[in-house]
Amino acid sequence: MSTLTNAQKLPETFTNFKPSIKVASPGRINLIGEHTDYNNGFVMPTAIDKKIYFEFKENETDSTCRIYSVTYNAYLEFDHNNLSISEKSWENYVLGVTNEIKVLGKSLKGFDCIIKSDLSTGAGISSSAALECGFASGLNALFDLGLSKVEITQLSQKAEHNFVGNKCGIMDQYASVMSKQDHIILLDCESLHAEYIPADFKSCKLLLLNTNVSHNLADSEYNTRRQECEAAVEVIQKKYPEVKSLRDVNLEMLEEFKAQLEGKQYQRARYVIEENERVINATTAIKAGKLNEFGELMYGSHDGLQHNYEVSCPELDFLVEFSRDKDYIYGSRMMGGGFGGCTINLIEADKIDEYVAEAAEAYFKKFNIKLDTIAVSPSEGTIVEKL
Ligand code: GLA
């Protein structure tokens, strides 16, 4: 496996590339419901209009796979009969997906693939899921593997567990593949039942503010949070064997175990139970057009993530605080795994420019870091085109 330097020449196949499959694979936002997916709870994501683009074609070999990332000027070549974890993080997404396809007993041949991205990494808009799911969707079409869309999301999640080492939930992959234009998804992560809700925010828009920080605690703390939740469930199961996840626990039940739960398990579980309730309430508020109510739930979500789940960081907290006294901002919260990335804000569209200028100046003054905005609109999931 090699990373291209400018001095190296790309294999001939990449000059004058004639693809037979094209894929556009989007990133995602999440309106509310953070760290609930791996607890079998509820989330409210949708795909966005920022994507990773793939082109695929079969090559003349049985098992040589050649991948060129234009965006990173990086080249990867591997044999799909001989896969192992790489030291380079991005390579593990494609190697992991290839591996999971093989685990399912599907047969592949040699192929070439070009990848271009307009999704920023580290911003919490899930470039990882876009890479995994787009790659899986491309191979599915190229080799007629017969995988359903849901199977693509599930094998991509497994790739992230087994090759990348991040024990993520299903939200990002599901949103990237299954979203519908101009809708948000109320996803039940236990049954994978999805309700598509029109993304109607009246005169408001969803605005992402990118802190441009990505603290390296993110991966290890993510897996720790998951373990803390699972440990809490194990304790509760001793009395209530029917409990399979925090999804099945309410606050009253949780109180019974307060003394028995160790370390931070109680406060982690409490956050998850409350966040699930907020997602359900947010659904009602959005359907009724009550943006104020929805906005308050966003703030509630942030408070829980900051104080009980402890996955926020000073930069995210600063931006959420900065929005609180602005009556044209209905809600604001950190989005995604945490420890950096973006806040998501529900803001009157005609106030965006003014607010961004003010927030960027204050943010720079405080942290000496440039604030970026990412304009997003709820979009269609993965699009596969056969040429
Ligand atoms: C990351 C994970 C998701 C989800 C979020 C937090 O994006 O990939 O599965 O857990 O964090 O809500």
TrEMBL record:
Documented EC number(s): 2.7.1.6
Database matches in PROSITE patterns: GALACTOKINASE (PS00106)
Key words of the record: ATP-binding, Carbohydrate metabolism, Cytoplasm, Galactose metabolism, Kinase, Magnesium, Metal-binding, Nucleotide-binding, Transferase
Sequence ranges assigned to domain Galactokinase N-terminal in this UniProt record: 19-54
Residue ranges of every copy of the GHMP kinase N-terminal domain listed in the record: 92-179
Pfam families: GalKase_gal_bdg, GHMP_kinases_C, GHMP_kinases_N
KW Kinase (keyword) present: yes
GO biological process, one term: galactose metabolic process
Annotated ranges, domain GHMP kinase C-terminal: 284-357
GO molecular function, one term: ATP binding
Domain of life, source organism: Bacteria
Cellular component, GO, one term: cytosol
Keyword Amino-acid biosynthesis: no
NCBIfam families from the UniProt entry: gal_kin
PANTHER family the UniProt entry points to: GALACTOKINASE-RELATED, MEVALONATE KINASE/GALACTOKINASE
Family: Belongs to the GHMP kinase family. GalK subfamily.
Protein name from the UniProt record: Galactokinase
